[in-house]
Each structure stands twice: as C-alpha cells, then as structure tokens.
Design a protein that fits this description.
Cytidine Deaminase, domain 2, five-stranded mixed sheet, 5 strands, elongated, about 240 residues, alpha+beta
C-alpha cells in the first residue's frame, strides 16, 4: 500500500451490495405495510416482516416460505415448540424464542378482548378467537376452565390439566372444588383436539355430563363445553349434547 493511502472506513457506507439490497427491500416492505396495512399482505410477507426483527442482514422471504411449508399455516409456525423451531434450518434458538414471544403477545392481546367488566356471553366471538389463538395448534391436549360470576363476567381463566396428544385426565370433583374456591356461579369448559378435528368424542360427552350433574346439585351453571381444533370449534351446547 502506498504510504499516502488510507484504509477504507468501515461502516454503513462500506456495507456490501447484498446488505444494501436487503435494507432497501426491508424499507420498501415496511413502507408498503404502513401504507396498506397487514390485511393486504400474504401470510409469508407478514412472517417475513416478523423475521426482520430476529434476523438482520439476511433475506428472510425464503425462510418465511419454508416455515409455512413445514408447519402448514401461519398460526402453526408460532405455536410450534421452541425446540422444534430451533432445529429448523436458518432459525437460531434466539430467533425461535422471538417467535414464541410474539405468540404470547398475540394470546395476551386476544385475552384482553374478553373484558372482565362485561358478560362473557356477549363476547362470544372474541372468546372463540382467544381460545383458538391460545390452544388450536398445541401438540397436546389442554383442559381449561373459564370461571364466571352471577353476571357471567370472567373471574378467572385457568388451564386445569395438560395431557397427551389425544387425552387429558379431568376429574369433575376437582373442577367443582376449584369452582367453589373462586365462588364462581357458572363455568365454560374448553379443551383442544391436537388432531385438528373438533368433533366431541364419547369420553368428552361423558365427562361434560358428569361435571354438569355435579354442578347442578351445587347450583352452578355449566354454560358450555367448547372443543377447539385447527379446522374450527364445536359447542356441546349447540350440538344438544348437554
């Protein structure tokens, strides 16, 4: 190097052409998002933007599309376990953790839609949306209970049991014990079917009727038992099974 020559400065101005290209692409995507909103975006585009936050200086569109192919849907990507996401090519454990954080934020946002100051039965679609976001893509069964007061306002929302891929042990007397502890006047039962099909099984119906019978004796109302699946939901009350 000649004595008068100086090393090139490192920094934004000396970024590689690829880095400049990614930055320009991300800026254009963000501006489009701000202009037209997320409803105008394809799922892979929204996921690509989420990955912007976790993976700098890299084209995340191919990764977004690969994740959707692997897991089958936008919601399923976020609901996948951290362990499984971390093993996916192109995702580090920290990037996978960021996806799980976003899932938790979405679930919390949905839960706030269930206003404790108004009757939960008047927010039925918000309840279904919340339960789907929280449970539809879980790999094992969860059994949760919504405890309500005399005006059908939410007292508590608790996951009572976590089971296997196709079974959750539920003990009606334990359900009633917790109901009495909270001084609840009514209940809504909710559980998921990891298979995706929300159709109630014979065991689901028996368990629900057992809880309904004990609740009736104690003056407690069982409004419904909702089963959440990837393809939708089923209400045992609407199906006239309770």
């Amino acid at each position: 190097m000649p004595p008068s020559a100086k090393p090139a400065k490192q920094g934004k101005d000396t970024a590689t052409p690829a880095a400049h290209d990614h930055k320009g692409h991300r800026d254009r995507v963000r501006q489009r998002f701000l202009k037209v909103g997320g409803d105008a975006f394809e799922y892979y585009e929204l996921l690509e933007m989420v990955l912007f936050l976790a993976i700098p200086f890299k084209d995340t569109k191919p990764l977004a599309k690969a994740l959707l192919r692997e897991f089958g849907s936008f919601s399923a990507v976020f609901s996948a376990s951290h362990a499984r996401l971390s093993k996916f090519p192109g995702l580090s454990p920290s990037s996978a953790a960021n996806l799980k954080v976003i899932q938790s934020v979405a679930a919390r946002f949905g839960r706030e839609g269930i206003d404790k100051q108004k009757p939960i039965l008047s927010s039925w679609q918000e309840l279904i949306d919340y339960c789907r976001s929280a449970m539809a893509f879980e790999n094992v069964e969860q059994f949760r209970i919504l405890f309500l007061d005399k005006k059908n306002r939410l007292i508590a929302d608790e996951v009572q049991q976590v089971g296997t891929v196709d079974h959750t042990p539920v003990y009606p007397r334990e359900v009633m014990r917790r109901t009495l502890e909270l001084s609840a006047s009514a209940l809504i039962l909710v559980h998921n079917h990891p298979s995706g099909d929300p159709s109630p099984s014979a065991a689901d119906v028996r368990m629900t009727r057992d809880i309904a019978d004990i609740a009736r004796q104690l003056g407690i109302t069982l409004h419904d038992h909702i089963i959440i699946g990837r393809s939708g939901h089923a209400s045992l009350r609407a199906l006239k099974l309770i």
